[in-house]
Write a sequence for this structure.
């Protein structure tokens, strides 16, 4: 176990709805990154949060937003859900923003299905 | 052309076989290369980094060919437990953002 927990593990939403996914980072880690992994694809970087500030963003529209709390846990919010948002959403925590991503620990993910 | 390309497979091999996967990348400025393993419905886990001189970890050998812009992973003496998806990851210098390939599926059968 990595110590990174995500909730919920599975979720079904309707197109147009909004969803919030949560990630509790490993103790002592202040950096959280979020990834989207569609079926049959590799993870795609969404964004990273370091000390409660967005610290890098991939090629995702503004309806994907995030938040990091003082205890370094994080949320991923997706508005106006589309069918193509159906995917496994992974978060990864690392010690700080200078750490190599290979030193990040992944959670087991939230599987989101949009119908 | 995608930044990182992998043959999705599946590669279906018997136990004990040797199997190799390649991964090509388009950004010649890429500096860091890795192989991750992902089991079905699980999170990715780092398998090994890929160094310019090549590196070996037990039955696994990784190599980098900068001239042709590809990395490879060789698995010798395949075990049933090697069945998984192998993700190639490339990181460009100065950027935190890693780029994952779509993965190559390996199925090792008895």
């Amino acid at each position: 176990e990595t110590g990174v927990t995500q909730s919920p593990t599975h979720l079904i939403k309707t197109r147009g709805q909004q969803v919030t996914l949560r990630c509790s980072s490993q103790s002592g880690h202040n950096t959280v990154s979020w990834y989207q992994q569609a079926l049959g694809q590799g993870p795609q970087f969404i964004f990273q949060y370091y000390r409660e500030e967005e610290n890098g963003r991939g090629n995702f529209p503004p309806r994907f937003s995030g938040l990091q709390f003082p205890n370094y846990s994080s949320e991923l919010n997706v508005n106006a859900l589309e069918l193509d948002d159906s995917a496994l959403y992974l978060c990864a925590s690392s010690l700080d923003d200078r750490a190599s991503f290979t030193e990040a620990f992944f959670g087991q993910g939230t599987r989101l299905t949009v119908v | 052309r995608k930044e990182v390309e992998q043959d999705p497979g599946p590669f279906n091999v018997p136990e004990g076989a040797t199997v190799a996967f390649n991964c090509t990348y388009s950004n010649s400025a890429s500096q860091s290369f890795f192989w991750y393993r992902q089991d079905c419905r699980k999170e990715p886990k780092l398998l090994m980094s890929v160094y310019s001189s090549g590196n070996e970890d037990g039955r696994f050998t990784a190599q980098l060919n900068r001239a042709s812009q590809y990395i490879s992973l060789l698995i010798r003496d395949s075990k049933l437990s090697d069945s998984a998806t192998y993700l190639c990851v490339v990181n460009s210098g100065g950027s935190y953002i890693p780029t994952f390939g779509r993965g190559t599926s390996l199925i090792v059968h008895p």
User: Anything to note?
Assistant: The CA atoms of residues 69 and 84 of chain B lie 24 Å apart. Chain B touches chain A at residues 4, 8, 32, 34, 41-46, 49, 87, 89, 91, 96-103 (CB under 8 Å). The two ends of chain B are 37 Å apart (CA to CA). The mean pLDDT of chain B is 92.
